[in-house]
Amino acid sequence: MSAHDTVYDGSSGEFVPPQELAAAATEPLLQVLGLQVEFHTRDGVAKVLNGVSYHVDAGETVAVLGESGSGKSVTAQAIMGILDTPPAFVTGGSVKFKGEELLTATAERRRMVRGEGIAMIFQDALSALNPVFTVGFQIAEQLRGRRGLSRAEAKKGAIELLEQVKIPNAAGRFGEYPHQFSGGMRQRAMIAMSLALDPEVLIADEPTTALDVTVQAQIMDLLAEIQRERNMGMVLITHDLGVVAEVADRIAVMYAGRIVESGDARSIYAEPGHPYTIALLESLPRLDLKGQQLNTIKGLPPNLTDIPPGCPFNPRCRMAQDICREQVPESVALADGRSSACHFAGELMQRA
Amino acid sequence: MGRYVLRRLLQLIPVFLGTTFIIYTLVWAIPSDPFAGKCGQRPCPPEYVAKMRADFNLDDNLFVQYVKYLGKLFTGDFGQTFSGVKVGTLIADAYPITIRLAVIALVIEGVIGLVAGVLTGLRKNGFLDNLVLVATLFLISLPVFFTGYVLKVGFGISVSSTAPLGDLIVPGFVLGSLSMAYVARLTRTSIAENRRADFVRTAIAKGLPGSRVVGVHLLRNSVIPVVTFLGTDLGALMGGAIVTEGVFNIHGIGGLVFINIQQQQGVVVTGVVTLLVLVYLAMSLIVDLLYAVLDPRIRYE
Amino acid sequence: MSDPAVVAADEPELEQIVTGKQDKPRSLGSDAWHELRRKPTFLISLILILIVVAMALFPGLFTHVSPTAADLNHARGGPSAQAWFGYDVQGSDVYARAIYGTRASLLVGVFATLGTVLIGGIVGIVAGFYGRWTDSLLARFADIFAGMPFVLGAIVIMLTLNAPGSNPGETRILSQVVFSIAVLSWPVAMRIMRAATLVAKQQDYVKAARGLGAGPLRIIFRHLLPNTVAPVMVYATIALGANIGAEATLAYLGIGLRPPVVSWGVMISDARDYVAAAPHILLFPAAFVSVTVLAFVMLGDAVRDAFDPKSR
C-alpha cells in the first residue's frame, strides 16, 4: 500500500455526502473524508469503517451518534493516529487538520498534533489514567515535555488546569492517585489533562457513559463551558440522544461504519431523514407516551466481516424494499445542508 | 502504609516458626544414632554420650528442644557441632561466596531477562520474539547441572573460595539461567498485556514521545510482577546454589549442608536452612514493601 | 484487546462472541482446540510425548538389549554401530538404559505432579471458597513450604527418610522422591487454584447458586471446579516436565533414585564422575531429560495460549 492510497482522492470514498465535499473546499478545522478502516481478524477482514466523512469548525460541537460497534470510536482513534496496527489498517480516505493531511504525515508530526492540535478524552477515566502515577504528574508531564516548563512551573500549570475543571482543593489533589478520585472528579482530571496543551479540537469519546446520571450533567455542562470559552471544535461521541440534544450543533449518525445521516441537530430532531435515525428517536422513552409499548430497533447490527448486500440497515429496517437489498444507497443532499444515505430519504422528509 | 507493613510483618512470624520447626524435626528425627562412629572404631563411652545428649538437649521432647534452640538462635548463637566447632563460624565461612554467587545470578537474570522480555513484548511474534521464546524453552528444559557442565568444560573454569567476582560470572549465569527464562517470559507477558491497556493509549494520545510512553508508562506498570519474582528468587537461588556449587567446585553453603547431613551434624543443617528461610522471609517482606511503593493502589487497601 | 472483533464492537458483540450467539457459534473449548490443531509446537510436543510414553510402556519395542547387561570390556566405550549411544561405566548399553529409564523417570514425574496438583488444588479451592480466616491460615501454611528451598528441603527429607548407608527398596525410594517433590512444590498449584477460585467465585451464576441455597460441595464441584481446572491443568503440564528434571537433579546429588532402578537421573548420577573422560555417558540421558521436559513445557505453553484469548 503506497502512502498515496490513504489520501482521499475523490473516488475511494463512495459515500461522501455532498455537503462534506463542499466543506472541504473551505478547509474546516478538522475534516474527515471517505475514511476506510479494516480489521484483519482470524475470522476474516472486518470492514469497520466504510467511508466516514464529517467535519468540525472552531467553536462548534459535532455529535457522532450510533450504537456500539458502529465505528464511532474507531473513527476517533484513526483521527488521533492511535489505532493498533495490526489488526487495524486505514485503507482509504483522508483526515485533514487545518488543511494538513494527517494520514500521510510522519509519525513525529502526528505526535506533535496529538495533544496540541487534537486532544482526546476517553470513556473510562479509571482505566485511561495510569494507576501508578499521581494525577498531577500525568498532567504536568505534558507541560514539561512539550512546553519545556520546569518542574515547579509545570506543577503550577497543572494545578491551574485542575482549577479550571472545578476540582476543589486542586493543589491538594495534585499529588493524589487516580483511584483516590471519585468517578466524576476523575473525569474532570481527564479533561484537565486533555486541555494541558490548549488543543484546537477536542474529541470526547463517550465522556459520561461510565458516570452517574447526576454527575453526567455536570460533566456535560463543564465540557460545553470549556468549549465555548476556548472556542474549540468538539467531536462528541455518544449513544445518548439526550446529551446530544443539549449540546450538539450538528449531528452525524453512524451505522455499520458509515455516516447514514448528518446535518443540523435541531432539524434532524424535528424531521429525521433516515429510517435508522427515526428508529433511534422512537426508542427514546417519552413521558407523554407513558404506558405505551416502547419502540425498539429489532435485530442486531450486522457482522462487520459479512455486511449484507445493499443498505447495511435493510435487515432491521421497517420500510426496506427490494432495492434496499440490492443497491447501496448513496448519500443524497437534502435541504439545509443535510444529507441522508437512504433510497427513500426524499419521501421520508416529505412525509414528516 | 504503616498498618500494611505491620500486618505483613506479623504474618511472617508463624511462617518462620513453622518452617524452622519442620526442618528441626526432620533433621533431628534422622532415625539412627548420631554418635555412631564419632569416637573412632570403638563405640563412644557412655559418659561422653550422656554429656553430648545433655548439651544438645536430646533427652527433652522435640518441642522443648526446638524452643531451647530457638531461644539460643535469638541471641545469635547457632550452636556448635559435636566436635565443638561453632556453627556460626562454619556458616560465616561458607556464606559470603554463596551470597555473591546468588547476587550475581540475580543481576544477570534480572538484566538479561528484563531486556529480552521488554524487546519481545513490544514486538510480539517477530523474529526476535520467536528466538527468545525458543531460547527460554531450552533454558527451562536443560537441567542446571547439564548447563553447568557444558559451560564449565567450554570455559575451562575452576573457582576458588576467594574467587574474584569475575570468576563467578559463568557459575552465576548457570545458577540464574532457569530464572532468567522465567523473568523474560513474565516480562514479555506483562508488557504485551499492558501495551494494549487504556492508559498506554492515553499516554500516546497525549502526544508523549514513544520512548516516554514505553520507558515510563508501560515499563513502570509492567515491572511490578517481575520485581516480585526477582525478590523472592534470591532465597531460592541461594538454596539452589548447591548444584551449581557442586559442578564448579565452589565451597559455599551447598557443600556445607551436604557434608553435614551425611555426618548427621543436625545443628549445621538447621542453622543453614534457618538462615535461608530468614533470607526468603526478609526478601518477601522487602518485595511487599516495594510492591506498595510501585503500586499505590496497594497502600490504601 | 487484540481480538479485533472486540475492539470494533465494544460490549454487546463481545458478549455474542463469548456466549457464542454469533453466526458461527463456538465455545471457548472448541475454539482453543481449533487454535491448537494449527500450532506446530503443539503437534511436535504431542508427538514427542507419545514417543516418550511408548518408551515407558513398551521399552522392548525400541531395543533388544538388556539395560542391565554389563560387559566391563566395553566400559565407557564411545558411540558405535553396536551401541549408538556408547557404553557406560559398567559397560552397559547407554541407549538401552535410556529407553528402559524412561518408565521410572516418567512415573516420578506423573505421580509427583498428581500429588502437587491434588494437594495444591484442594487447599487452593478451599482457601479461595471459604476466604476469611480459613484463607489466611491456609495461605500461611502454604508459605511455610514455599519458603523452604527446594533442593535443600528435598535433601533433608530424603536423608531423614533413609539414614545414610541404608538400602531402601525400589518402590519405597520411588515414592519418597515423589513425596519430596510434591510436598515442596504444592504451594504453587495452591496459589493458582486459589486465584482462579477467587475469580470464579465472583461470577454472577455462582452468587446466584449461593442465593438459591446450594451447598458448598455442590458449588465447588458444579460451579467452581469447571472454571478453575484449566489454569491448573496448564500448570500441571509444565510442572510434569519440571518434575522429571527434578528427579534428575536429585539423582545427580545422589539422594534420588539409585541402582538397581534404571532412570535417567540414575544414569546421570552414575556418569557424574566420568564427565571429562566419557562425556557421552552424561550427554545422552541429559538429552532425554531435556527433550522430555521441553515437550511438556511446549505443550503447556501451547494449551495456555489457546485458552487465554488475551494472549492471541
Kindly give the count of domains of chain B: 2
Query: What integer value in Å does the Rg of chain B equal?
Result: 24 Å
CATH class of the largest domain in chain B: Mainly Alpha
SSE series of chain C: HHHHHHHHHHH
Share of β-strand residues of chain B: under 5%
In CATH's first tier, which class of the domain at 88-288 in chain C applies?
Mainly Alpha
Mean pLDDT of chain C: 76
Query: What is the number of E strands of chain B?
Result: 0
CATH topology of the domain at 88-288 in chain C: MetI-like fold
Of all chain pairs, the largest interface belongs to: B-C, 50 and 45 residues
Largest sheet of chain C: none
Oligomer: heterotrimer
Task: Describe the model.
The complex is a heterotrimer of chains A (352), B (301) and C (312). By secondary structure, chain A is α/β, with parallel strands linked by helices. Helices cover 36% and strands 21% of the residues of chain A. Chain A has a single domain (18-117, 197-351), classed as Rossmann fold (3-Layer(aba) Sandwich). The longest helix of chain A is centred in the middle third of the chain and has 18 residues, at 213-230. The termini of chain A are far apart. Residues 1-5 of chain A have low confidence and may be disordered. With 301 residues, chain B is mainly alpha-helical. Chain B has twelve helices and no strands. The longest helix of chain B is centred in the C-terminal third of the chain and has 39 residues, at 210-248. The radius of gyration of chain C is 23 Å and the shape is globular. Chain C has a domain at 88-288: MetI-like fold (Orthogonal Bundle). Chain C has 312 residues and is mostly helical. At the A-B interface, helix 3 and helix 5 of A face helix 8 and helix 9 of B.
